[in-house]
Amino acid sequence: DVMFAYPGDPGKLALRGVSITIRPGQLVVVVGANGSGKSTLIKLLTRIYDPISGAILLDGERLSSYRQHTLHQATAVLSQGHHLFPLSMGENIGLGCVERMHDERAVHAAAQAGGATSGNNLLGKEGEALRKRLDALDKPVEVSGGETQRIVAARTFMRFNSGKVRAVLVDEPSSALDPEGELALFDNLRAEREGKTMIFVTHRFGHLTKYADLIICMKEGQIVEHGVLNELVDLDGEYKKLYDIQASAFVTT
């Protein structure tokens, strides 16, 4: 049973009695209202923080017993925090797999998978943004939130070229994307799932949950329901409530 409180607010538990088994190769979707603990769970799985009690086990061993470098090599994280470096667009993507940073074919394939080659104004004349620093283009551009998210997503796809990634953790990476762009991103991520465990945190979960091997529904720092889509809908509980709220947004009268 994992318990966790943020250092700045030790009296308030962000996770309470969390216990779940995720099997290798599963596609997992974590859902819940704001503040339910979804992103906190990802932070513990990536060891940004450690539990204050309880333990997270990986292959039967405590996660804290693994070297950080080993975990980093085996994990790809696509999160809400987006950052571009003062480099070319191609180099920003290539950072996902430094060994192949200058492999133009690999970089371009990653850019396409992340949506960074469509629907934005960054490529410019003959794709100059892939080669030139973004702040030194012949025609200066402002990088929008959606464009930033696409480049960061492309960096994650580039990371798959290392051949070492075994776990992919996706935490609300598409807040600035339209539904069509988000759908394409998630479909492209799912296409890469062979040999990988994938854990998604997203508010717009309707498309993903039908593919999920496991849905985890959280509320107030606890896992209140878990199972597959039909099971949780039939429970008519917290997940069904969230599902109905989301579905109602697409119903016109």
UniProtKB/TrEMBL annotation:
<dbReference type="InterPro" id="IPR039421">
    <property type="entry name" value="Type_1_exporter"/>
</dbReference>
<dbReference type="InterPro" id="IPR027417">
    <property type="entry name" value="P-loop_NTPase"/>
</dbReference>
<dbReference type="GO" id="GO:0016887">
    <property type="term" value="F:ATP hydrolysis activity"/>
</dbReference>
<protein>
    <recommendedName>
        <fullName>ABC transporter domain-containing protein</fullName>
    </recommendedName>
</protein>
<keyword id="KW-0547">Nucleotide-binding</keyword>
<dbReference type="GO" id="GO:0005524">
    <property type="term" value="F:ATP binding"/>
</dbReference>
<dbReference type="Pfam" id="PF00005">
    <property type="entry name" value="ABC_tran"/>
</dbReference>
<keyword id="KW-0067">ATP-binding</keyword>
<dbReference type="InterPro" id="IPR003439">
    <property type="entry name" value="ABC_transporter-like_ATP-bd"/>
</dbReference>
<dbReference type="GO" id="GO:0015421">
    <property type="term" value="F:ABC-type oligopeptide transporter activity"/>
</dbReference>
<feature type="domain" description="ABC transporter">
    <location>
        <begin position="2"/>
        <end position="245"/>
    </location>
</feature>
<dbReference type="InterPro" id="IPR003593">
    <property type="entry name" value="AAA+_ATPase"/>
</dbReference>
